[in-house]
Design goal:
The protein is mainly β and about 240 residues long. The longest helix is centred in the N-terminal third of the chain and has 5 residues. About 0% of the residues lie in helices and about 45% in strands.
């Protein structure tokens, strides 16, 4: 299947031309997921409704019998974007947490369920990409330190199992932050999760960045290696791993 999340962050050229926010949060419009078979056509899309939310990044999605499961980093309200009249969204609600969406294709309801799996603020979820579209037993995401001075800043990594339960976390010193982690399998036939996790770390004291290399199944031990880049890589940096062969 292909999923089409339609979430109530709206763009409006007339609004922008009137000097109002070109993109704005309109929760009364609700949230929807369109579901289409990969071999299907747009006329085959079935729509499901949910509570208003916003998502930038999805960890994974897969079939589970008659259900489709998607693990996402869900915001109750989006950061960065105001209401149509310019009022800001609620900062307390503008933090992403790992959330499981469930769509029952054989059920009698046109609603999908949304269940938070953890209360830890995070973003940039990743899996072992060899399990994309299949049930997976490992996931990682950049997370915040709930006890840090800048709660909400991405200053660590969380490792979770297939149910979203935390296996381990690793946190940076106060003030430092990191970008999207990337999983690298030890070999193409290695077991799921057997490999390395790469993440770019920004160092506040020097305004430079390091490439941190973790044992993916033991992130709480800290980086196995650091590559000092000698310059700054902006927060929010994305990446993918491509093998040389």
């Amino acid at each position: 299947h292909v999923l089409f999340p339609i979430l109530p962050l709206t763009g409006s050229m007339p609004r922008a031309m009137a000097g109002k926010p070109p993109y704005a949060w309109e929760p009364d419009k609700g949230a929807f997921i369109g579901v289409m078979k990969r071999s299907g056509d747009i006329k085959d899309i079935v729509w499901f409704r949910g509570d208003a939310c916003y998502v930038f990044h999805i960890m994974n999605a897969w079939d589970d019998g008659s259900r489709i499961i998607a693990d996402v980093m869900q915001f109750d309200e989006p950061p960065l974007f105001p209401h149509p009249d310019g009022r800001p969204t609620d900062p307390a609600k503008s933090r992403a947490r790992l959330c499981r969406w469930s769509v029952d294709l054989a059920g009698s309801s046109d609603r999908f369920t949304q269940t938070y799996l953890d209360d830890l603020t995070g973003e940039f979820p990743r899996i072992d990409d060899r399990r994309a579209g299949l049930a997976s037993g490992h996931g990682w995401y950049a997370c915040a330190n709930p006890d840090g001075p800048l709660f909400g800043a991405l200053s660590g990594i969380a490792h979770v199992d297939g149910a979203g339960r935390r296996r381990a976390t690793w946190l940076l010193p106060d003030g430092d932050s990191l970008s999207e982690p990337v999983f690298v399998p030890r070999s193409q036939d290695a077991a799921e999760g057997d490999g390395w996790l790469l993440a770019v770390v920004w160092r506040a004291a020097t305004n430079t960045s390091d490439l941190a290399v973790f044992n993916a199944s033991g992130i709480d031990a800290g980086p196995a290696a650091l590559v000092h880049l000698g310059h700054r890589v902006p927060d929010g940096f994305h990446g993918n791993w491509v093998g040389a062969a």
